[in-house]
Amino acid sequence: MSASKVKMRERKLKNQPVSVQYLSSSTQHSGSSGAVGDAGPSDTHTSAEHAKTPQQPGGWVRGHQKDGGGYTREMPSCITAVAFAQARAAEVSAMLKAVTKTTGSCHVFGALPKHMRRRAMSHNTKRLPCRLRDVANRMREKSLQSGSKKKEQAKNKSRKARRRHGNLLLEFNRRQRKNIWLETHIWHAKRFHMVKKWGYCLGDRPTYKCYRPCYRAMSSHCLLQDLSYYCCIELQGEEDKLLLALSQLTSKETGPTFAAISSLSGQRQGSLVVYRAGEYPSQPLGPVTFLWRPRAQGSGHRHLWIWAHPTMKQDLLPELQVVCQCSEAVYPLLLPVGIPAGTTHELQPKPENSSEVEQVTGTKRKRSSEDASVPPAKKILGDGTRSPTTPVTWKSSSTGIVINDLTMEIVRYRLIGPQSHAVLADILEAATECDEKSRAHPSSLWWPEHCRDENKMNLHKQQAEVYQTLKGVSYSGELPPGTVLGLTVDDPRLTLPSKKVKALASVKPAEDVDEEKRRELMLRGVPEHCCQSHLWEKSVRDNVTDHKISEQQLNRMRSEVLVPGSRLTPTPPQGRVPILLVHQPGKQVGREMSSWGAGWDLLLPKGWGMAFWVPLVYRGVRIGGLHMSLKHSQNKGAPHFPHDYPDCPAGVRFQEEQEGEFLDKFKRRPPAKRTNYIKHGCLAPFRCPWQQLAEEWELILGEGEKRRGESQAQNTAPSDTVMEEPMTSQRDVAKPRSRAAVLRPVTSRGQRACRTAEMPPLDRSGVARFIAAHEMSLVWVRLSLLSKGKPEVHAMVCVPTAEDLQLLGKGPGSSGPQEPPHKDHLRSRTKHKKKAKTSLPSKMDSSEPATSEDLEPSSDSTLGLWPDPLPSVTSHCSRVTLGWVTQGDFSLSAGCGEALGFISVAGLLDTLAKQSMEHRGVVLLRNPASLHYRFAKVNIEV
């Protein structure tokens, strides 16, 4: 009998009594000497043995047997009456017990006939017949007792109670303990695919198809993004001490630093790459943008805001604390006992009988008669993951510098596109002054107190004039890059249109705009004193946030207006908001699409996110997520953080996470449906081994110089063909004579060269010196395909051979070469190990020892992927590898496939030195899952 049949028989007879076991013929003959009807010990022992070994031929068995046997045909010659009667009695009692027993899955009304069963009987025992009510009540009590041991269910189950404002906010705060929500989270969650990244819950892409509409919005209208997840770090102190500390993190060789004149005055926003203190150029942290507060008259105390990506904050903040010597943490005031540690409510003065703070999710909320007419206290959501005792301020007793972490304290929106200027001009209106009545009496609001100061009001009028002049500028790309304008505006909800309208720039120039002032603004930017904003002051930000008009109050005020839809007049005193407008220059490199993607950044105090978001949406803008941020960088040809920063700690972490995601997706597919990257000659389809690439190119050039030196020693006269190879480098650092001498500028399509002067030949000595100084470096390039094709992430950039360039001479649309298929040695080894594993029992029978290699293949190896360590990445394929692609897609702006990535500086210069002027800058591009090479043109935009 097979093992499965034995298990099935044991399962069926598990709860059955041991019946009489009929002995086989051999047993009967051996025991025939016993008297008939004698139930001696021998019979009992034999029965027990048969019960333990049911696979013996004797007795009842199920199914056909392999040995040809079946059911026992010979009947016993005699039976024991007592044993037979006991067995039958046991079977009858077991049958009665099984019939009367009620299992946990049975219900009482299962005993009713089908025509009497009703669904209401399962909930209300009074609907059952009287004879079954007691049993049903006992079962109900047992279920309640077993359920009480589990987690108690929430008492508040009704939707009406769950949707109460206070309970909603408590539930939202609980859900933010792991991932922070932006103020526009609920708006995005209804329309976007949400992803959890960098400690936030962010919108990745819309649920509807809008890839091309979003590109059209960036090119011709306006695209809106919420960048409030960016971290803001504020530095306060004396200007000379701040510059001295920050100089350790930057270098003048990379461009303008924190001490740039235009940025130091507060008129422009600056950007740079930050390094670890004193470690330039080896340990970069990543790119940041910074903004100085304009100088106050007669004071050297300055404020600086540094904006960084959230993945970079854990590396940047400790470096700032070290260089500024801010090791003393200033701990915030502890919250009252009633407030949970996970919530982030602002402390509000509350009455003694208020119990809203102590409200726990899942309990009934009962409002007393005292607060029945008063709306609940407003709760401001901020950083939902930060503990109330976590310090956000650090100071230094020696330098006097103070560092404040303003993460989630300032809302930042980005408007991209040529009409972003018109959209802002449509929703933002300069704040109106308070009436005499509001000025006469002291107020807790900041704007009435502000209106009493004549100097501040004069500054506000000047800023309003500059803003009015700014409305006359038709295109935001005409302004100086990084222009900053401080302004105080009215609540945009007061002018919200009844339906969506598309904001467009006026064709006719505004009559009240002075042409001379407009030209001055386009040339020199905003004056320094007009860049000041009250958004820098924490007291003003808190006052504006705490006294914001709620939607309920605003709707009540709208209902009282005589003409429906008209603006509320006069403007409520708490409806003034300080903001900052920061210009984004767009594309600044290359010769094409200048200023593409230019726009504005709108900086607001926290709590006002949705108050500005909805009016912006009602002006017809498109909304983009993280995916469109990446596409925006691709169309500009700019590196995107952290995707394109492999030498930064955040970039390294991102590549490890990306490799894990790609590998998990690869392993989820069946082995027969996976791409065999070994056969395709792709060593690293999910990552880019940059360090190994740079080291191998250093060895390649070193061997070439060594061979060239030996050939020159053998030949007395130097040959003219030696000039085709890079010359022996001298160890002094020298830059090429001209950047244009390296690559001819090409258009975005890459099919034709730009109209430039005749290119001079390469300066071989300068190239050799440059290679000697930067042979371990990588260069950021843009690759344009010369024919059809769509580049993918981690595509290989290779050096074409002379035969490949001959194919290119047939025409611009000629097909590229093919990579010959590679042999998968790893797969053959795996099959060999599997065969060894199947033949293992025969080995064990022959008493041969089996090794661990015979049992199973290596656990690190995956079918279709090269195991570590990797072989040579440059010479693994038939074409020498130069680098890899980090971003690739079909470019709607160029009309062809474009890729962005890094290639070896030494490999690029060595390739260019061997190419003719006609084919200079032509490389091969091959996707990881393809054997087809495609021609591409290299373009280095500076």
Major β-sheet annotation? 7 strands, antiparallel
Q: How would the global form be characterised? A: flat
Strand line-up of the largest beta sheet: 6-7-8-5-11-10-9
Radius of gyration: 40 Å
- Uncertain residue segments: 19-59, 335-381, 716-742, 841-857
Number of helices: 29
Question: End-to-end span in angstroms?
Answer: 81 Å
User: What's the overall average pLDDT, rounded?
Assistant: 78
**Main structural class:** alpha+beta
Task: Give the topology, please.
Layout (H helix, E strand, L loop, with lengths): L2 H10 L12 H6 L10 H12 L28 H20 L29 H20 L9 H4 L2 H11 L4 E2 L3 H5 L2 E6 L2 E7 L4 H10 L2 E4 L4 E8 H8 L14 H4 L5 E6 L8 E9 L8 E8 L1 H14 L4 E3 L62 E3 L6 E4 L4 E7 L3 H8 L8 H5 L5 H6 L2 H17 L13 E7 L24 H10 L13 H9 L4 H9 L16 E9 L14 E7 L3 H9 L4 E2 L2 H11 L12 H20 L21 H25 L49 H11 L3 E8 L10 E3 L3 H7 L16 H14 L1 H6 L6 H4 L25 E11 L4 E9 H10 L7 E5 L7 E6 L3
Helix pairs in contact: 24-29
Short précis:
By secondary structure, the protein is of the alpha+beta class.
Task: Explain what you see.
With 942 residues, this protein is of the alpha+beta class. The chain contains 29 helices and 22 strands.
